[in-house]
């Protein structure tokens, strides 16, 4: 006789937990997905401009890096606000641990971008070497990780989509 307890998956049992459709959207298109392109591109641009400054010594690149990291941080915060609203408002999103993992990664990334911006205020050139460049490198790595994980939420777990949740791990 099989003595193992009968285990059930709460996500499959409860219909409400299968609702993962984005609520912060424009004509059905999630704002978060539209906004994240900017911090991703600008975070890598900051690293590129820092490397060009280290290579050429031209003040232009240090200033460009300062503007890029400001853009990455400020639009990243906007994207974070739309993502957090989804996380808190949509039951099927907040009940999945992967959403919270993404939130933690994103908050770490935004802290790095914010620190990298504040460091450069008033002295964009002096801030690049070595601390600014080091922060840009770590932030670019964190951006890749957070962006990849965001894609995983959507394409692997169908979070933010209209899927009915069948066959979702
Ligand atoms: C700060 C808190 C954040 C929260 C709570 C959050 C939450 C979410 C959620 C719930 C989704 C699923 C799609 C949706 O419902 O819109 C998502 C997707 C995604 N997130 Fe975030 N996010 C945050 C910040 C960020 C940041 C800073 C980035 C930038 C690297 C990012 C990158 C992505 C990407 C690339 C996707 C996939 C978008 C797609 O292809 O449709 N997220 N995020």
Could you give a quick summary of the protein structure above?
With 169 residues, this protein is an all-alpha fold. The protein has helices spanning 10-13, 31-35, 37-56, 59-89, 91-94, 97-120, 128-155; strands at 25-26, 29-30.
Structure summary, number of beta strands = 2
Mean pLDDT: 92
What small-molecule ligands were found?
protoporphyrin IX containing FE
Helix-strand topology string: HEEHHHHHH
End-to-end Cα distance: 29 Å
Helical content stands at: 55-70%
SSE class:
mainly alpha
Beta-strand percentage range: under 5%
> Outline, from the CA principal axes?
elongated
Show unreliable segments.
none
Total helices: the number is 7
What characterizes the major β-sheet? 2 strands, antiparallel
What would you report as the Rg, rounded to the nearest angstrom?
20 Å
The side-by-side strand order for the widest beta sheet comes to 1-2
Pfam family, one: DUF2231
Transmembrane segments: 33-55, 67-90, 102-121, 127-148
Domain DUF2231: 28-162
Protein name: Putative membrane protein
